[in-house]
């Protein structure tokens, strides 16, 4: 049984749905060896929302019983209403896309390259810092320029 539990833990981890704090789940239905698994973040959030919606439990009590805050409960409730069960699977952590390299900065970089094709990524990073006061890694500039060129080709 332990090997099976380890496999499930690995599968949940790979899919991004491993509950980082299963020990905080105190709901009686999530007892050891039962059907409900406190390690399964999607299952825990679904049950928390269902408890309030179907059984009429208070949001604050349900959130506490399932190891979450009230804001997390409301986020899960909204996600479930908008996107169903798949919406409860957490997305990848971290920033999405190049947030420093705005259109204005990218336009400046392209103009600079048009004027002087010998400029390298370090030179371009210096231009961005001088003009906008923003520090950008040269490799980020390289990748952003490639993405922009590919976008124009399509």
Keywords:
154 residues, mainly alpha, 2 domains, elongated
Terminal-residue CA separation: 52 Å
Uncertain runs: none
Give the amount of beta strand, in percent: under 5%
Q: What average pLDDT do the residues reach?
A: 91
Task: Give the SSE layout.
Elements: H1 2-14, H2 41-55, H3 59-65, H4 70-83, H5 103-115, H6 121-132, H7 138-153
Structure description:
The protein is mostly helical and 154 residues long. Helices cover 58% and strands 0% of the residues. The chain contains 7 helices and no strands. The protein has helices spanning 2-14, 41-55, 59-65, 70-83, 103-115, 121-132, 138-153. Helix 6 (121-132) packs across helix 7 (138-153). It is elongated and about 70 Å long. It starts with a helix and ends with a helix. The mean pLDDT is 91.
What's the quick description here?
With 154 residues, this protein is mostly helical. Helices cover 58% and strands 0% of the residues. The protein has helices at 2-14, 41-55, 59-65, 70-83, 103-115, 121-132, 138-153.
